[in-house]
Each structure stands twice: as C-alpha cells, then as structure tokens.
Amino acid sequence: MRLSRFFIDAPLALGLHELPETQAHYIGRVLRHAVGDAVQLFDGSGNEFLGELVEVGKKNVRVEVREVFAGLTESPLHIHLGQGLSRGERMDWAIQKACELGANAITPIVSERCEVRLKDERADKRMAHWRQVAISACEQCGRSVIPVIHPPLGLSDWLGQVEAELKLVLHPVAEPLASHDKPQSLAFLIGPEGGLADAEVTQAKNAGFQAARLGPRVLRTETAPVVALSVAQQLWGDF
C-alpha cells in the first residue's frame, strides 16, 4: 500500500513534529488517518522523511519522524519554462504537468495576446494558488523539490533576465527540437492561447532564443509544455 505523502513548509528532522493546521485537517478529517498510521513527508530540501502519527485530533496532528533518506533525484536537465499566461484551468494544467515533467522554474509570461491581466491582490492570490498546484503535483509524482513559481513578467523583462545554455521559442516554422545539441540548461518560451505575435518571436530571437517546432500540428497552450518537456526529457534528461 502506498504511503500518504505530504509537503511540509518547514524544515524537518528526526523527532516529533506538529503539523500545520491545513495538513492536520486533511490528514485527520479528510483522509481519516489514525494514530499509528505511517506517513511520508518532504520539506523541499531534497530529503524524504518517514514517520508515524502519534496524535490525530480535529486540529492537531503530530508525527514522529523516524527515518530520513535522499529523495528522488532531479533531472540533469535544468528547465525554466516561460509559459504564456492563460485562463484558469489551462494555466493550472500547464503548471501541474510542467512540475510532473521536471521543470525547475516556471514564469507566467504576459504577452500581447494574453487575455488575462493580474494586479495586486488578485495576483497574490493566483501566485498562492499556483504554488499549491505545484506542491500537489510534487506530492503526487514523487518529486522532493518544489519548482520555483515566479511572479508573472512581461515578455521583454523575462527575455532580458532568463539564463540558460539553450533558449527555445516554440514556433510552427522552425527546425525540430531534436536538431539541437544536448544542453545542461534549457529555457522554453511558449505563447498564450492566441500564440505569440510575429514581432514577439523576432524579439525572442534577438534575445538569443532559437525557434523550434514539435511537429506538424498546432498545439494548445496547455498542451505545448507537456509535449515540449516530454521530448526534452527524452532527448537530454531522465526519460
């Protein structure tokens, strides 16, 4: 039977730990775990922690951590995904799958054809939501490190600061992804629902990006990162 696995946003070590109220409620009231049940925890450090529930209340759950071991090794290919900002579930899907497929950093990109604009309090709420999407994806897929979700950036700002050995912008008229040599780090730029404007593709190329295509069909904005990261991991990563 697979152990329940939870991210704890605090350093873990051997010994007794009281879990945050959110996890306590989920463990005790939703999953209905009981004293004596085994659980697996991780704190984003790269380690995994095996423990046993020693107290399960309505709001209080305590775990005794009894074993620490190295978590899942990260892919040798470091990937920074610049994902065009899209609506609700499409953005959630892109972030979730990018985490499952080994992306190390994700930046929502505001470009000309974006239909979503985030400001102030709404932006803060979306950032918190996206981080939880990433955490849940890592809890499910077994990653021991949570990818960094950066605040949304305008395309020009992101192009000016992103660093990678190979920088690619997806474009239907370009050489296949497999035509590039193996990099150690990779930056992907993927457009929003309406795609990138021709001027934005040119802007990316002027910033050191090379155009790459995934095949003859035009993919949705939430499908493109799944395919792009899968192919990249197959060619140069840990697939």
UniProtKB/TrEMBL annotation:
One example GO MF annotation: methyltransferase activity
Protein known as: Ribosomal RNA small subunit methyltransferase E
Coiled coil start-end: none
Reaction(s) catalysed by this chain's protein: uridine(1498) in 16S rRNA + S-adenosyl-L-methionine = N(3)-methyluridine(1498) in 16S rRNA + S-adenosyl-L-homocysteine + H(+)
Function: Specifically methylates the N3 position of the uracil ring of uridine 1498 (m3U1498) in 16S rRNA. Acts on the fully assembled 30S ribosomal subunit.
EC number: 2.1.1.193
Keyword flag Transferase: yes
Ranges where the Ribosomal RNA small subunit methyltransferase E methyltransferase domain occurs: 74-233
UniProt KW keywords: Cytoplasm, Methyltransferase, rRNA processing, S-adenosyl-L-methionine, Transferase
Domain Ribosomal RNA small subunit methyltransferase E PUA-like: 19-65
Similarity annotation: Belongs to the RNA methyltransferase RsmE family.
SUPFAM superfamilies: alpha/beta knot, PUA domain-like
Gene3D superfamilies noted in UniProt: 3.40.1280.10, Hypothetical PUA domain-like, domain 1
Any one of the GO BP annotations: methylation
CDD domains the record matches: RsmE-like (cd18084)
Iron-sulfur found in the keyword field: no
Entry-linked PANTHER family: 16S RRNA (URACIL(1498)-N(3))-METHYLTRANSFERASE (PTHR30027:SF3), RIBOSOMAL RNA SMALL SUBUNIT METHYLTRANSFERASE E (PTHR30027)
Subcellular localization(s) per the UniProt record: Cytoplasm
Principal localisation: cytoplasm
Lineage summary: Bacteria, Pseudomonadati, Pseudomonadota, Gammaproteobacteria, Pseudomonadales
Native organism: Pseudomonas aestuarii
